[in-house]
Write a structure and sequence with these properties.
Strand order of the largest sheet: 1-2-3
CATH class: Alpha Beta
Helix content: 40-55%
Strand content: 15-25%
Order of helices and strands: HHHEEHHE
Largest sheet: 3 strands, mixed
Number of strands: 3
Number of domains: 1
CATH topology: GMP Synthetase, Chain A, domain 3
Shape: elongated
């Protein structure tokens, strides 16, 4: 059976993304981050590293570091719900990348 039209490029790109995306805990967290924290926070705070359940988040300004720290319990719950497991147990913030 022949196709009457080409397949959308988005289908191929999604398949390629799944194939080449790293499967590290940090990569999974970075992918789930915008859905877990919302667009505004995601634009100002970025997951930087994960070690043993502790997630370090780089924030553009100290005020964002404080905000993410205050929201840590909610962000942790949202992230783990998005990830489907209890990968993140603690969130630390920094306003200077290390």
């Amino acid at each position: 059976m022949r196709r009457s039209a080409p397949r959308p490029l988005s289908i191929a790109l999604q398949s390629l993304e799944r194939t080449i995306a790293p499967s590290t805990p940090l990569a999974r967290i970075q992918q789930a981050w915008p859905a877990a924290v919302g667009e505004v926070v995601a634009a100002n705070a970025v997951p930087l590293r994960e070690r043993g359940g502790t997630l370090t988040v780089y924030c553009k300004q100290a005020v964002w570091a404080q905000e993410v720290s205050l929201m840590a319990a909610e962000v942790t719950a949202n992230l783990n719900r998005e990830l489907g497991d209890d990968l993140v147990r603690e969130i630390r913030t920094t306003a200077t990348p290390r």
